[in-house]
Amino acid sequence: MAKTIIVSNRLPISLRHRNGRFEFKPSAGGLATGLGSIYKTGDNIWIGWPGNTVDDPEQRAEIILELHELKMAPVFLSREDVEQFYEGFSNETLWPAFHYFTQYMVYNPEHWEAYVRVNQKFCEAILKKADPDDTIWVHDYQLLLLPQMLREVLPNATIAFFQHIPFPSYEIIRMIPWRKELLEGVCGADLIGFHTYDDMRHFLSAVSRITGLSSESGYIQAENRIINVDSFPMGIDYDKFAKQAKSKKTQNIVRDFRNQVGDQKLILTIDRLDYSKGIPQRLHAFNQLLLDHKELHGKVSMIMIVVPSRDKVQSYKELKEEIDLLVGRINSDYSTLNWVPVHYFYRSFPFEELSAFYNLSDIALVTPLRDGMNLVCKEYVASRTDQTGVLILSEMAGASKELQDAILVNPNDQRGVVDAIYQALTMKLAEQKARVVSMQETLQKYDVFQWVKVFMDRVEHVKGKQAELTSKDVDAKVITEIQSKFKSSVSPVLFLDYDGTLTGFTANPQDASPDSELRALIKGLSTKAQVVIISGRDKDTLGKWFKGMSIDMIAEHGVWVKHKESKAEWELYADVDASWKEDIRKVMEYYVLRTPGAFIEEKHHSLVWHYRKVESGLGDLRMRELFSHLKYMARGHNLQVLEGNMVLEIKRPDINKGRAATSLMKGHEYDFVLAIGDDWTDEDTFKAMPKNAYSIRVGYAYTQANYNIKSFRQVRNLLAKLIQ
Ligand code: GDG
To answer: In what order do the strands lie in the sheet with 694-698?
Structure first.
């Protein structure tokens, strides 16, 4: 039976050296709890780094055995790997970039090589365990290359990826020298998840600009499959926090702490030591509060827990010193014999004490400068068993999208933060309750188990969608069938679209002339079959490109036709009234003037606005504007506006490729019909085909055709087989 493999940089345990031996400490983190329901069942497994280096092969073997019992498998990293892959590329390049701290970004090719090498190590470790039909769920920014590495070896596996930290704007991503490789790496997955809609929007934009893969409604159209990108805000184990807060053990600690701090209002802050968390900014705001409100002296104090982290990285060392200094200054400025403004702890606490801090504090001040989600704020809300308390939350945390009943602040706006703390300190109990109850309802419903379920359901959904599309794939069997039907036919006809079907796209449409391979192919086919090039191109271009070849041509989506047997020139298929063009051209010209790179192509029956050469983003924006403008005008002229591949075309609706194909077939008896095309204009051809025809759409989009094929390369291979 297919199994599920969870992969993350760290396993949900820590491996520690003690008296020459190793021991494991399980992690009680949110992710480990949420995924427990998965990796602990059946043959499922969690693969990752145990968090420490082990050189001795005997000890490694022992660890593998022990972890096996816990349903885990280790990826052993060397000291150099840890330094260059983890501390280096992951934490000194990707982490600052993804959190918008470009000033801390390090561009070190050795770190990059280590990143590739370690992703490869993970890949090998997974391949030792994985079967072709398994589901592999990869987590986070340390393993961005892994999905594609896995895809290359296991093309049919179900691969999902979730990023726990933000995904920044294209402007930041483009700074990374290895941006393309990173994005292509992630795109090996079938489903790519982020915490928020903004993260997914940024990702899609970066993918489109850097790799050229376009997307629609969260589906990236890759060469041979669709990839879904969506947002899945991660929840917490709500009941665990609510239950712990009520427990005797925690309540005793609460009482004990309360006795020590006396009758003061408490503001809680908990973070890992990180510049993204905005700890100094928060201390400055607290200092300002004490300056502005002397009446609060002796009545409010801050409990600040900073969990040690990455202390070998220089920027973290400096941050630690800055925090130490600020806390020292505030305490030395304001402390009295029975009041300390900041209770500062640079360590982590056991779960029951953490719960006591949540339960005890009147306010949680969570003000990261940037945070993928932030679970601390959610845990605080879940721990408020009496439904009092106030959450002040940064707009820059993913969680702010869900927790709209918090007091939302911009962490860079010191005045705003000071006012928010004051508002929280003076908030009436009824308002506190109303806000907490509403947030608790949300968090209880969308807990971490629900998050896992929704994500896994979505994985299944994407696979279903892919299967629907690939069920129509032109595979070896279909090729053989087409080949033999073609060989035995007496009067075959082939309708072949040109751009995207017989050749790839070029920035300048005139550069896409047929190469020698294609010319030979068409020539070969035309000795046996009636070959019809059916294109949206203008007749002069087609005429020039295929001059002297024994084929039929339909140009401008069916306006013009040129039969091979007739010596005559192009015939007009439709009598076209072109009086509408003047009005429409004026509008299009206005959009050309405002859009560097855009241009108008005039065809006999249509006007086309091209934006392939326009800066991406701007092109889409202008196209949308022009689209609605033209749609409005089209009604008056009885015209049709159609969106194509980097073009917007306006034309008479009664002229299309289907109509032209039908009239071309009239009076003929064909015993083999094949139609191939790659966009919406070819759908008309497919619809017009007789029942026994083979119709093939290039790319994996929904289609009227009976088959899909990967790309123009595969089309050429198929056609080559027909003349073999
Ligand atoms: C990444 C993203 C995203 C903290 N102090 C103690 C302690 N903690 C626990 C908290 C909480 C966890 O650490 C911190 O979680 P965050 O979500 O705030 O931050 P990251 O670890 O950086 O996580 C983040 C997350 O992934 C999930 O996708 O939300 O944005 O950066 O659970 O409870 N636990 C104990 N003692 C402490 O002193 N026991």
So the answer is: 571-572, 560-562, 552-555, 530-534, 492-496, 672-677, 694-698, 707-709
Percent of the chain with pLDDT over 90: 77
Whole-number Å distance, alpha carbon 375 to ligand 1 midpoint, is 6
* Residue 497 among the catalytic residues: yes
**Residue 60 domain flag:** yes
Shortest-distance Cα residue to atom 20 of ligand 1 = 374
At 395, is the pLDDT very low, low, confident or very high (cuts 50, 70, 90)? very high
Domain encompassing residue 642: 581-651
On whether both 424 and 558 belong to a single domain, the answer is no
Tell how far the Cα of 271 is from the centroid of ligand 1, in angstroms. 7
Q: Are 406 and 377 in contact (CB under 8 A)?
A: yes
Q: Is the CB of 371 under 6 A from ligand 1?
A: yes
The yes-or-no verdict on residue 9 having pLDDT over 70 is yes
Q: What is the pLDDT of residues 419-428, one digit of tens each?
A: 999 999 999 9
Whether residues 222 and 326 fall in one domain: no
Give yes or no for residue 534 CB within 6 A of ligand 1. Answer: no
User: Does the Cβ of 348 fall within 6 Å of ligand 1?
Assistant: yes
Q: Residue 601: which CATH number?
A: 3.30.70.1020
Residue nearest atom 26 in ligand 1 by C-alpha distance = 164
Residue 9 CA to ligand 1 centre (angstroms): 16
Q: Is residue 569 part of a domain?
A: yes
Could you identify the atom of ligand 1 that is nearest to the CA of residue 379? 33
Q: How far apart are CA 623 and CA 299, in angstroms?
A: 59
Any atom of ligand 1 within 6 Å of the Cβ of 165? yes
Is the pLDDT at 538 greater than 70? The verdict is yes
Give the number of the atom of ligand 1 that is nearest the alpha carbon of residue 274. 22
Atom number, ligand 1, closest to the C-alpha of residue 28: 39
Q: Give, in order, the Cα–Cα distances in Å from 493 to each of 463, 488, 601, 685, 696.
A: 36, 13, 30, 13, 14
> Per the structure block, which two tokens stand in for 297?
């002296």
> If we measure between CA atoms, which residue out of 133, 179, 188 comes closest to residue 161?
188
Check 190, 371, 405, 497 and give the catalytic one: 497
> Which of 273, 256, 226, 284 has the alpha carbon at shortest distance from 418?
284
The residue written with tokens 């929840």 in the block is 235
Q: Is residue 628 part of a domain?
A: yes
Which CATH number goes with the domain that contains 689?
3.40.50.1000
**Low-confidence winner among 5-9, 51-55, 523-527 (lowest mean pLDDT):** 51-55
One domain for residues 562 and 647: no
Cα-to-centroid distance, 376 and ligand 1 (Å): 6
* The domain boundary residue, chosen from 177, 206, 231: 231
Average pLDDT value over all residues in the chain: 93
pTM for the full model? Answer: 0.82
Residues 297 and 179 in one domain: no
Q: What 8-state DSSP symbol labels residue 336?
A: B
pLDDT of residue 593: 87
**Closest to 195 measured CA to CA, from 89, 98, 281, 119:** 98
- Domain tally for the chain? 4
Which residue, of 617, 651, 685, is where some domain finishes?
651
- Same domain? For 634 and 660 the reply is no
Residues 216, 268, single domain; the answer is no
Classify residue 461: in a domain, yes or no.
Answer: no
Same domain, 179 and 65: yes
Average pLDDT over residues 318-327: 97
Domain check: are 570 and 709 in the same one? yes
Q: Please tell me the distance from the alpha carbon of residue 504 to that of residue 211, in angstroms, as a whole number.
A: 16
